[in-house]
Amino acid sequence: MLFGVLTGLILLVALVVLHELGHAIAARRSGVVVEEFGVGFPPTAWKKKLKNGILLTLNWLPLGGYVKLQGEYDSATNKGDYGAATYLQKTKILFAGVMVNWLVAIVLLTIVAWFGMPKVLPNQFSVADDTTIISQPVEIQSVTKDHPAEKIGLQSGDQITRFDGQDIKSAEELITIIKKNEGKTVDLTYVRDGLPASTTVLLDGENSGGIFGATLGQRESLRATWSAPIVGFGTTVQFTIVTLQGIGDLVYNLASGVIMQFSPDASTSNDAKEKIANAGESVAGPIGILGVIFPAASSAGIIQLLFLTGIISLSLAVMNVLPIPALDGGRWTTMTIFRIMGKKLTKEREEKIQMIGFSILMGLTLLVTFVDVSKLF
Fold first, then answer.
1. Sign, CA torsion 114/120/126/130
2. 214 part of a folded domain
C-alpha cells in the first residue's frame, strides 16, 4: 500500500512538473524571465539559485508544481515581463504545458502499444495490418450469493483456464460449455494470485443462471510493432475526444439536472436526481485519480501503470485547455476576448477574473472530492 501511495504521488507530481516545465521553456524562449520553478507547493524545504537566474525550490506539499514568471499579468510592460510578450508568444507560453502533457501521453502510449495496449474502447484505434490481439484468461468479475460459483469458493479476480476438460480461450466459449452441461458436475481449473487450483462444480440448472452465478470478463491487449508510434498518437487523439465528450456529458447532465430540480412539475424530480447522479459518476477528482493509480501502482504491471499514466497526462492536457479562468485555456480566452473587444486587461481586472475562476474551480474540486469520498463508502 505504501509503495502504491508513493508511486502514485511521484507520477502525479512528475506530470504536473513536466507541464510547468513546458511553460518555463516557452517563456524563456520568448524572452520572459522565469523567476522561480517550484516542485511541490510551499512551505519551502530546499532552494537554490541556478546559474541561469532561476530559483529552484523543493516544497513540502507534494501536490504538483508551479512556475513564477516576471510580470505575470497581461498589462505588464517591463522588459522580461510576461505581459510585454506578443500575443503569439503568450499563446505559446500558455499552451506549452498542455502540449508537453500531450507529448508525454503519446510517448507513453507508444511504449504501451509496443508491448500491448489494453483494449478499453470497442472501436479502439489500431493499425489492422500490424495488430496482434492478446487475450487474457477469462476472469470472474463478481459472484452471486447461493449460486454454484459462490458455493465452491470462487472469488472476483479468479482466472478460469480449464472447464470440463477443455482449455478456455474466451468467455463465450465458457458460457457455451456451461449451457451444454447444466445439471452435471464438471471439473474446473482456475488461477488465483498466480497459483493454479482445481475443483468441481455442480451446474444445477435452475440455480446456475446460465453462467453458474458469475459475471465474466476478459481483458484484451492490442500489440503493434512498426505502427506503435502511429497507435500512440492515434490513441491519444481518440482518448482526448472521448474525454471531451465525457466533460460535455458531465456539463449537460449537471446543468439539465439542476434546471429540472426547479421545475414545478414534480414528475421530473427523479429524472433530475438521475442526471445529477450521472454527472457525479462521470468525473473523478484528486481522490478518485489517486484511488485508481495507487492500486495500479501496487498490483498492476509496469505496462498497465504506463498506460494509466498516459491517460492521466492527456486528461491534464484536456482539463487545462478548457476556457475556465485560472486554467491555461481560461487565461488565454480572457486575454483573447479583451484583445478582440479592444479593451485593456488591467492587472486588477485580470486578478478579479482569475480569482472568480479560481473560486469556481475550487468549488468544483470540493464538489468532485465529496463525490469521490462518497464513492469510497
1. positive
2. yes
CATH of the domain at 145: 2.30.42.10
Residue 262 resides in a domain: no
| 376 occurs within a structural domain | no
Does residue 208 form part of some domain? yes
* CA 153-297-23 angle, 5° bins: 150
Contact 232, 207 (CB under 8 A): no
- 186 CB-contact burial (10 Å; exposed 0-12 / middle 13-18 / buried 19+): middle
Over residues 282-315, the pLDDT tens digits come to 544 444 444 454 455 455 578 888 998 998 899 8
Q: Which residues contact 366 (CB under 8 A, 6 or more apart)?
A: none
The pTM of the full predicted model, rounded to 2 decimals, is 0.80
55: phi then psi, degrees, rounded to nearest 5: -85, 115
Indicate the number of domains in the chain. Answer: 1
46-100 tens-digit pLDDT: 999 999 999 999 999 988 899 999 999 999 999 999 999 999 999 999 999 999 9
Cell 470462487, residue located: 154
Question: Residue type at 115?
Answer: F
CA distances from 190 to 161, 199, 351 (A): 5, 8, 61
Higher-pLDDT residue of 262, 165: 165
Q: Which domain holds residue 205?
A: 137-218
Residue 100 zone, left/alpha/beta (φ > 0; ψ -120 to 50; rest): alpha
Is the pLDDT assigned to residue 217 strictly greater than 70?
Answer: yes
